[in-house]
TrEMBL record:
Biological processes annotated in GO: glycerol metabolic process; glycerol-3-phosphate catabolic process
Alphabetized Pfam families for the sequence: DAO, DAO_C
Leader sequence segment: none
Cofactor: FAD
Swiss-Prot/TrEMBL keywords: Cytoplasm, FAD, Flavoprotein, Glycerol metabolism, Oxidoreductase
Top-level taxon in the UniProt lineage: Bacteria
InterPro entries recorded: DAO_C, DAO_C_sf, FAD-dep_OxRdtase, FAD/NAD-bd_sf, G3P_DH_FAD-dep
The keyword Cytoplasm appears for this protein: yes
Organism: Rheinheimera riviphila
The protein's name: Glycerol-3-phosphate dehydrogenase
Domain Alpha-glycerophosphate oxidase C-terminal as annotated: residue spans: 384-478
Location relative to the cell: Cytoplasm
Reactions that this protein is recorded to catalyse: a quinone + sn-glycerol 3-phosphate = dihydroxyacetone phosphate + a quinol
Similarity field: Belongs to the FAD-dependent glycerol-3-phosphate dehydrogenase family.
Length: 516
């Protein structure tokens, strides 16, 4: 078993939103960071969310005012720092007096408007549904408020790119199988997929394993987890677009839960989520027939367009690793987070992340890094609140769109729009010196060309067709099995000439280290 001579400052275990956020923050403060992820980036909870950057209106009912305030403030920060993958979205809430009285909703929306400063988003208001409403005729009145939408898996990749730009090493498909404290460092054994294990040394470890956070204690750290984690499954379905309006809907249900109905990828509607206690392997989570019925029933209760199980185009489920606060039901478990720090003789820190939500990931990462830099006196200060994520360094979407349209006048409008929404200013790294559509190489279908695929393999750690079609994009909604197989064959052939191990030769940093 090989052992690297280099000693890292921080090893981050887990390539979801919290892990990549912490890796980026630490690297930006001058620490030498290695991040390992047992699968692909964002391969679990972080790519299976409702894709919302929101304060959590319903959390007010559980008196989580601090969490909502923090999330509302972060909403503005993230909309500013990643305008290519996040944007405002208007939500409509049909009113049902028997579920929540109007005064209660007005009070909640007033707090939602005023708990934190609003810069980008409009205030809430009462509305009446007109003849053009997609809702059934009995829904006459409601409320309207604004929140944010995000491409969740691209947010994770963007943070990994930020970490790499500051010198971090990103090792995907690499498990942490053993970690023990030695005299002046941690000795950690990493296991790349289908390769020999190797050892690295690090001065600190961050356990950001998400649903696996407690399991890492049992299996690699050989210690007892300091917190209990409650695994709660949330499932979504994707159906053909329910209506042509740009609004999303927040639907109340008889069980006091709410379900979002959100325009998704131009031609679809995303419906979710559920809250179900989960006991199994987080890597094998799937939607149940009961959850499908639940989501279809609530949609059919509100909308004119009636749905059947055969209308479902796709579905996905994620396991949220929530702090076990001994709540009676899954829906009332807190979405807050807790950071647990342990040391040996005041050194060799182990920082573990329990809970959290995607909206507050940056604040969580900042708080985690604040704790870690106490052990590294040479580290610099906070920086992430004002620094755009990679791809977000542009004045406005309209200005960037105009620049790219001028530079690549032959690019179809739909493809230009997707590049903007995925890569922002990094679109130029995909397009490079292309002068015609043919210069982008093999067309795999639905606007996916070889130039984009090779970019994703070279710069964004994509190794499989699933990585490209479901996490770097959502083109899997359109691809047939035959098209997917063609893409997989192309990627396998391309990767055959690239070493697949995750040691220092291959756990790569992105080549372009200067922000666009």
């Amino acid at each position: 078993m090989s052992e690297t001579a280099q000693i890292y400052d921080v090893l981050v275990v887990g390539g979801g939103i919290n892990g990549t956020g912490i890796a980026a923050d630490c690297a930006g403060r001058g620490l030498d960071v290695l991040l390992c992820e047992q699968q692909d980036l964002a391969s679990a909870t972080s790519s299976n969310s409702s894709k919302l950057i929101h304060g959590g209106l319903r959390y007010l009912e559980h008196y989580e005012f601090r969490l909502v305030k923090e999330a509302l403030a972060e909403r503005e920060v993230l909309l500013k720092n990643a305008p290519h993958i996040m944007w405002p979205m208007i939500f409509r809430l049909p009113h049902q007096p028997n579920l929540r009285p109007a005064w209660l909703i007005r009070t909640g929306l007033f707090l939602y408007d005023h708990l934190a400063k609003r810069v980008t988003l409009p205030a809430s208001r009462g509305i009446r549904f007109g003849a053009d409403s997609p809702l059934q005729s009995q829904f006459k009145k409601g409320f309207e408020y604004a929140d944010g939408w995000v491409d969740d898996s691209r947010l994770v990749v963007s943070n990994a790119l930020a970490a790499a730009q500051y010198g971090a090493t990103i090792a995907t498909r690499t498990r942490c199988i053993l970690a023990r404290r030695e005299q002046d460092h941690w000795l950690v054994t990493l296991q790349p997929a289908q390769q020999a294990a190797y050892q690295i040394k690090t001065r600190a470890i961050v356990n950001a394993g998400g649903p696996w956070v407690a399991r890492l204690f049992d299996e690699a750290l050989e210690d007892k987890s300091p917190q209990n984690v409650r695994l709660v499954k949330g499932s979504h379905i994707v159906v053909p677009r329910l209506h042509t309006q740009p609004h999303a809907y927040m639907l109340q249900n008889q069980d006091q839960r709410i379900v979002f109905v959100i325009p998704f990828e131009d031609n679809f509607t995303l419906i979710g989520t559920t809250d179900v206690e989960y006991q199994g392997d987080p890597g094998k989570v799937q939607i149940s027939s009961e959850e499908i019925s639940y989501l279809l029933d609530i949609s059919n209760h509100y909308f004119n367009q009636q749905l059947k199980p055969e209308d479902i185009v796709s579905s996905f489920s994620g396991v949220r690793p929530l702090l076990d606060d001994e709540s009676a039901s899954a829906q009332t478990v807190t979405r807050d987070y807790k950071l647990e720090l342990s040391t040996q003789n005041g050194q060799l820190p182990l920082l573990s992340v329990f809970g959290g939500k995607i909206t507050t990931y940056r604040k969580l990462a900042e708080a985690a890094t604040d704790k870690l830099v106490e052990f590294f006196p040479g580290a610099s200060g906070r920086w992430t609140a004002s620094q755009p994520l990679p791809g977000g360094e542009f004045r406005s979407v309209e200005a960037l769109s105009s620049e790219l349209r001028q530079a690549y006048p032959w690019l179809p409008e739909q493809l230009l729009r997707r590049y903007l929404r995925s890569y922002g200013s990094r679109s130029r790294l995909v397009l490079q010196q292309a002068e015609t559509l043919a210069d982008l190489g093999q067309d795999f279908g639905h606007g996916l060309f070889a130039a984009e695929v090779t970019y994703l393999m070279a710069h964004e750690w994509a190794q499989s067709a699933e990585d490209v079609l479901w996490r770097r994009s959502k083109l899997g909604l359109y691809f047939s099995p035959a098209q997917t197989a063609t893409l997989a064959g192309f990627m396998a052939q391309h990767l055959a000439g690239i070493p697949a191990t995750a040691d220092e030769a291959t756990a790569h940093r992105v080549a372009d280290t200067t922000p666009a």
